[in-house]
Amino acid sequence: MPEVRPGDDLPAMVAALAAGDGVVPGDVLVVAHKVVSKAEGRVVALAAVAADARARALAAVTGKDPALCALILSESRRIVRRRGATLICETHHGFVCANAGIDTSNAPPGTAILLPRDPDASARRLQAAVAARVGGRVGVVVTDTHGRAFRRGLVNIAVGVAGIEPVLDRRGETDREGRVLVATEQALADELAAASGLLMPKAGGTPVVVVSGLATRPSPGGAGTLVREPAHDLFRGG
Amino acid sequence: MPEVRPGDDLPAMVAALAAGDGVVPGDVLVVAHKVVSKAEGRVVALAAVAADARARALAAVTGKDPALCALILSESRRIVRRRGATLICETHHGFVCANAGIDTSNAPPGTAILLPRDPDASARRLQAAVAARVGGRVGVVVTDTHGRAFRRGLVNIAVGVAGIEPVLDRRGETDREGRVLVATEQALADELAAASGLLMPKAGGTPVVVVSGLATRPSPGGAGTLVREPAHDLFRGG
Lengths: 238, 238
Known about the structure:
The structure is a homodimer. By secondary structure, chain A is of the alpha+beta class. Chain A has two domains: 1-41 and 115-227, CATH 3.30.1330.100; 43-114, CofE-like fold. Chain A has six helices and eleven strands. The first copy, chain A, has helices at residues 10-20, 33-39, 53-62, 66-74, 119-134, 188-197, and strands spanning 28-32, 43-45, 76-83, 86-91, 96-98, 111-113, 139-146, 155-162, 168-169, 185-186, 208-211. The relative contact order of chain A is 0.18. At the A-B interface, strand 8, strand 10 and helix 6 of A face strand 8, strand 10 and helix 6 of B.
């Protein structure tokens, strides 16, 4: 994949590559959000960002760049936790992650990359372009790299999903002893995202991973399905 | 793999199957903890468990079986959260998960399956047996299926690791722009565990998945490396 620039038609680029690489209906494409964000113009020059009083106050307590703090605040519903320079935010999408998903690595110098405004819509555009090109349903999972509560280290999670069921509901299925399964929801799109992390070097350069041979079901649901509603969450706090 | 019973020599069984299936040095075996727990005798008949007053009190507020509550309490350092029937525990290993990792699905009727006492030691025994049989280093990841704060659905995570580095430290590496990477810790063993979930039906029957072609580094560290210390955790609470 060539370097992606603002305004590039990423769905067409990915569809052409997919067809050339032998992607077939049933495959799932896992796409790092950074190329999506770049194509969608979600790359911001920090020098062009005005930091208001709230951003400057956040910069003072975190030691972060005031312009970066202004972006974090504008991308967040709220700050969920702060300790030192660590800021865990709830984004407008509902994701709970560091710095509202804003990242400066693999970004041009002096810029920051934001999450797509609507990553499920981004996934649907990619899905439609690839499906049309290969002649049948494919899945698309757009990923970001997040930390987790309770556990060290980062994993890729799904921020956008199209063409496949993001969460498999196993209600009514039985185990090998004939008992109804208790753990009934499988976070398929997050499993796909995490698996892609094995093949996407953190230094960049591999924005798309293809998963073949996996049985998936079509679904209109997106990655929003994977967001636990705050009222059902035991850890976010009020 | 035949049905595993208490006292079975699981490392020898897995090593024989691995050799027969063409496992080679460098491969990683991802093993569902249930077969490990079964072989290690961590299957408990609920009728044989005495519920003390604390277990009975927990049963009263959760609606769970008092014997199951006694097991959950004995496997936990503490209860981290409770809402209705949902119990999030911190296990003696440090894992934060529902019901201290105790499960009754795919368990013989009237029994519950506990996590291995020391899943890293279990992983090391499997690792040593398979490595000896195939003539070189392999990796072993022992998994459990956990929920997550903030997100719906379950994913497999690593509860035991041997032979590979569980968390990759990227400090000092640079991105394609030459900037030092900020997100420096990759939870490799959790990525492997999550990937295995794509191939392990929740109804059971596929306890081992082999990952080939992945570059890993040897390490004495286990899954304990993946446990965030409570003092560094922003969500567990005191």
